[in-house]
# Entry
Amino acid sequence: MMSTDQLEQGTGGASVGTSATGKLAERKWRKAEHLLGIAAVVGVAATIWLGLWVTPPAQVQGNLVRMLYIHPPVAWVAYLAFGVTALGSLLFLWPRTRATRWDRLAGASAEIGVVFTALTIISGSIWGKPTWGVWWTWDARLTSTALLLVLYIGYLALRRVPGEPVARGKRSAVAALVAFADIPIDHFSVDWWHTLHQKATVLTATLVPKIHGSMAWTLLLGFVAFTLLYCWMLIQRYRVEDLLEDMEDRELAAAINERHAEAPVGNGLSMPASMPAVLGASQGAGQIRSGRGSTPDAAQAAGYVQPEGPSRAPAVSGAKSGSSQGDDLG
# Structure
């Protein structure tokens, strides 16, 4: 049979191996993330260069068509970001897949979507001024896009309302799904109503693009480049959100320990009135972060509530006695 020392050495070796594997995987992930960022920057730069200096002007719009290589890809990323937000919200609402990571993903993607929706409106106004003669008009496409921006700004504001983590995540997820209903309205508005905005150039009803040659390839590059940029931004924003939540958990644990030190329970002293709320919040956060349905009682784990059954002193005494007997036998 293996001795205790051999078992401890084996456990320690396995722990070191697991740690080394984790560090290697993290380095590979960091490298892939770095390459993703470089590819996104190079792709966006190439799109701008091709769009401004290489592709020919259009027959009708002339050089104004060069906004085509920026405006549609930016709008596409806004749709993509809100789609990911809707998916994360659905996964959080479903009890079998409910976990903090889905709520965190939904919030991070929505923030990026708001930025790209604002860029869509700005780039569209720059394109619309020389084309339509005005910076803004209450066109169906423009109005629905502005409504989309307002809806998701409201969603982000709702996420900042304090509350129990599960309840806050649920109401935010419902708001995200309600806001997502505006995306098909926004996209098909040029077909449903008479608008100043031109109809689809690539995803037409007959699936026959209205753009060809170098202009088509540059536009395709723009879609790919801005999609890569979105992926890189989502990774960064998700990591920041994760760090913020970890910091909040550490601050909550420090507050509990501080209150415990100020008012120790035992010898007839009672727990402060505010402590159950603090412990409940800590327990709820732990449940959501781990994705489990239940955790040990937080107050008992913190030492505020004595467990039922025999006191611990005899058990400790018995353990010490048994240890002494073992030493005597040895």
User: Anything to note?
Assistant: The two ends are 19 Å apart (CA to CA). The longest helix spans residues 4-54. Residues 273-279, 281-285, 290-330 have pLDDT under 50 and may be disordered.
